[in-house]
Amino acid sequence: MSILKTQNLTKQFDRHLAVNNVTLTIEPGEIYGLIGPNGAGKTTLIRMLTAVDEPSFGEILIQGQPFRQGDRNPALKRQLGYVPDDYPLYDELTVWDYLDYFARLYFLRGEERLRRLREVLEMVALTEKRDSLIATLSRGMRQRLSLARSIIHRPALLFLDEPVSGLDPVARVQVRNIIKQLQQEGTTVVVSSHILSDLEEICSSIGIMELGRLVESARLQEVYSRLSKQQLLIGVVDGMERLRQTLAEHPLVGGTELVLASGLLKVDFSGDQMGAADLLRSLVTAGLPICEFHQTKENLEEIFFKMGYQRTS
Amino acid sequence: MSTLTDFLEQLGDWNPQLLREIRGRVKQRTLVVAIVVPVVLQILLFASFAQIPIPPECLNSAEASSFCSVTPAILWRIQFFILSVLIPLGIYVLGGFTLVDDLGREEFRGTLSFIRISPRSSSSIILGKVLGVPILSFLSVLLLLPYHWLAALGAGFSLVSLLSYYLMIGAGAAFIYSFGILVAFFTADLKVVPRLGNISGIPFVYSFFCIYFTVAYLAWNFFTAWIPFWSPLLVVDVDSSLSFAIQWFFLSLSGNSLLAHVFTLGNGAIATTAIWWILRRRFHNPNLPLLSKFLSYPVVSYLHLLGLGFLVVGSQSLITSIINLTKFYLLFSGDWLLFVLLILTLTPDRQALLDWARYGSRAVVRDLLWADRSPSMLAIALNLLVTASTTLLWIQSWNDDMVTKERATLLTISLVLLLLMYALAVQLIAYIQLNQARTWMLGFVALVTLLPLIVLPIFQLTPQRVPFLWIFFGYTWAAADATPSAILLALALQGGMVCLLGWLLLEQMRRARVLTSSS
Question: What are phi and psi of B256, to 5 degrees?
Fold first, then answer.
């Protein structure tokens, strides 16, 4: 059974459809990346999925059961964790008291609670700060504390809205590692982020949102095989213009683009490995001084730009 | 120490919100203030009374002659009264302020979102807030209690009188705290009251309300429930006939202490339960109108009947001298205020109205009567119908001349039309795309209420010259001598206005359907 399913989920703000008829299925144990430009509806979708906001229309099923705002489904609420993009905290509490409060809200008791508190503090590397006031924490620490709060009760389904935005590279890696660890422990994670390279590394599935619609939702490998073009990176010692002319005549070569930083030519290529070998042979035969020849694929960022962002802009 | 830790541990398991509030508030510095202030207050009170000289022949209260104006018992009694006023002031005013301030801050910071999505029930969270946020006020008041008991003992008051006092004060606290949370939720998006630095002005306004409530509530109990125990009326030796003045639908509240207790506690329980119902619903979805249509019918009927009950029967002293029409004006004003609040709390915002226009069910009439996101007009009209019917029944029961009855009947219809005008206009404002729509609604009602008072006299349009205009705006008391034709003219104008606004609203609803379906 899927852990999360939505049917025609819609949220309208005034005349603007922030989320438009989103039908989505997420399987247990996945890390589902939600990507899209600003205003695509990612945050609104997550806020509805966590029952912070009420949908204008549509249905949410968690573990097959309808999920709505209110007191009616405490059992389902225990399965959810949520880190919003602005993670407000209680500055007057210490780190320990803050987490203790949320652990109690989620019915963790006695020794089990204390053990889990220590575990989570260890996981987010805040053990040293357990007695510090939250007001004194850095942005990265606050972000990790917010993450700790959301996983204190071992949720089956965790929603992270832009969890690494504004963090330095070290903190980003830390958060990424925590997400991977949570997945290994069996938590399903839905994460939205602008930093697509991070998502590419950890996600098993992705959804691309554009103007409130979910334009793509599939396993990452499937997206790559369907949407990612094969590319070649070719370098010459001399004669870049001649290389371009030679490539333009080749039947399997699409567009070319010079990557300025590396001085390599990026080539859209529709052939297989044998085709690439034939191409290399023909270039050498033509007397071009080839110094580099790599086979690669479009990454998530390029797919995203191609699919969503370019259409939106 | 370990016992306290164990207690807090168990308290936190029972209600985490309560423990979180205690941990957030009970710091060394705040604790010192909460302890020192009541202790100093008691020392000052005791010292000032210890200095009052008592003649030797009056020292023994039991044997003191009636010529003794100062006896130890009298002094204890005065100290008891002072403490009896300080205790509710501390609980209601300080507690009310901190509660409204805290909820306002939580809404402002957005921290309530995490609590809302936790599996704990809204009742548990709100109870934790009610018991935990004013914890320092409770502590200060707790420190006043030994002196309070000592004073009661010295004054010779019975244990029952003390129990009655604490029961009533506790019931008042339950109401004032619940109402405070309601106010905090309702005013979270209201920008009428300015902020003072980091603190919103709302808690200060609420504090003034709490002071007023404390005085009114104590006075109410002095005149009803506490008369046989220790009402100050007995001390100042006011004519005892006063104590039988307060009646409600033939029930003498000031003549029967037990009945007064039941009445006050019963109404307090009803009011507090209704508020909690609203809070539980609103807690999870702050975008819903404060009051549901479903709850509006019993709440409005109950409040109207509660007010009417005090007017139906006159008594031997104060109220018998008041003529029927004056009592009618009182009811008129009460109903006006009740419906203004109803209109402001029942009207959904633009988003809800557009959602209803697009995604609402096809059962329009059922939606208009029960669904929270539909326009509130029909529900308000139905409430008006019920209220006006009971008022008209009451008017028919008067032993008065036909002219007075006729005038009251017409003015009741005028009130219905006036409130329909308000409701329609407010609903139309809700459809407009505005920042702070609720502030605009409130502003509109304030404007149409206060502006005629200022503008009409400037143009010398006095109630004597143009009574229909004053009645049109709801100032029936100003046009007390208006002829039936003047009232009928006002009714015609109001009716015309209701038709116009009604047509505009229907147009607006139609446009909303077109707009949302094309977006």
Answer: -140, 105
